[in-house]
Amino acid sequence: MSFLVRRLAQTIPLLLVVSLLVFALIHAAPGGPLSLYLDNPNVRPEDIERLRRQLGLDRSLVHQYLAWLWSFVRGDWGFSYADGRPVMQRLVERVPATLELVGTSTVLAVVVALAVGVLAAVRRGFDRVAVLGAVAGISLPVFWFGLVLQLVFSNALGWLPSSGRSSFGATGIGDALTHLVLPAIVLATAQAAGWSRYLRGSLVQALGMPFTSAARARGVSERRIVLRHALRNALLPFVTVVCLDAAILASGAVVTESVFAWPGIGGLFTEALAKRDYTVLMAFLMCGSAAVALLNLIADVAIHALDPRTREAA
Amino acid sequence: MSRRRRAAAAAGGVLVVMVLLALLANVVAPYGFDVLDLAHRREMPSAQHWFGTDELGRDLLTRIIYGARISLAIGLISAAMSAAIGISVGAIAGYAGRWVDDILMRVSDAMLSIPRLPLLMIAAAVLEPGVPMLIVLVGLAGWMETARVVRADVQSIKTRDFVTGARALGTSPLRIVLRHVLPGALPAATVATTIAVGRGILLESALSFFGVGVQPPTASWGNMLYQAQTTMTTEPWLGIFPGVFIFVTVLCFNILGDALSDPGRRSM
Fold this sequence. Notes:
heterodimer, A: mainly alpha, globular, B: disordered C terminus
């Protein structure tokens, strides 16, 4: 319990640093958050002055930061510059699509990483191929990989739809699934690549521990040793890494959703970027970082709860 | 020579060729950088134009060779910058310990928890950077991993006897860190930096792909893809070739990084 409190106490200053960075970034724009209007000949200087006062931009930066932070914490995230709707509403309506994509790709990546990691740990020949595959997976430019898959499977072969979450007017599960295949593969590739290497590493380590030798001496089958004894020990660090990679996943989702016109939060981000919709962008970065910090917290707490060895050190 | 060494040698060879191509672009490129040939627009790859031509009849191979200058420069210089920051931060945090360590590592954790690409995309959209500023942005966003590994090494090295001995002789802390502690942390920092080069190239390409990175008429592999994405179905070569160059270059840097890391504790 005290561990949880201590970890939570570390997360809050972390989020404060993030918020400072995000705030500083937006205000680094030449002309500040209203720079978009400065170039627009239809917006008169007195209108900009009025907006500036309305938005509190004439106050000191410290004042502005505190006011922004306070309203953000209370759930008042302001209004989108693009369509005037509340930012939170715009983000929330995009959550289901992102969860669908990210959930599918994560499950896919975990399954592939488990299979490849275990095989690579026990078969040397396969390991050589797996290393190359993993390095290649990490080196792929995500957006280019997406474009090539679209080209091959949508345009050339015509097997799968190239973009969107569903065909116009279609509601079936089959239709949704065919739309999900390509973006999920793109997003899962980089994840699976890194994770499979990590799992292989910790499996090899576990297979060298005395308890596996002991199991072998008792005549336990090799299959059972790998899958029951070693894998169980290797799984915990694996789960941690899956949680810790959330930040990379968020970056990947932005690119993938944009390439495949997936109507999720990542797609919203690129739309907002094109329109310099700063309120949406700030909210996205804050929520993204908070989600990453939260997942890291969960990983730490889970390890602490499940692995007694980590408790002694603390 | 082990398999890994051979792979690393091959990767290194490819990279040397790539760098030479970029440096000698005005000599080796088959056409001039901005030579328009409106009679031969959007042509498929052929003997005259190995990678085809774009919508203005410019030779794609030529543009890729010139683009290599920008993409490689961004990857290499930003990684050097990340290394400088990361090694300094890691060394200070690891050697000083206590509150200095706490503060530096909290900042590093915070930076790591902000999704890197979206952060850079916003920064690039706000600042509308040229190539030098883009290098600085990518470099500023990539020092945390280096700082972490250097800090860990410094922490373990500073408790060793030869460091205690140097301290007993009255050596200044700065000299101890520079002469006795940091050399031990260099291998890990080198691996992190090699990987950072590949990441920098990927980040440049992603930023340019979204239109906030390198701006035309300067060619980079990323903004060539940005221009190609709308015509991917009719002129696929315009998108495929720059992507292959990004992929192969990043792959080579990652293979190098993998081979440089001690096999006993590979970080992959």
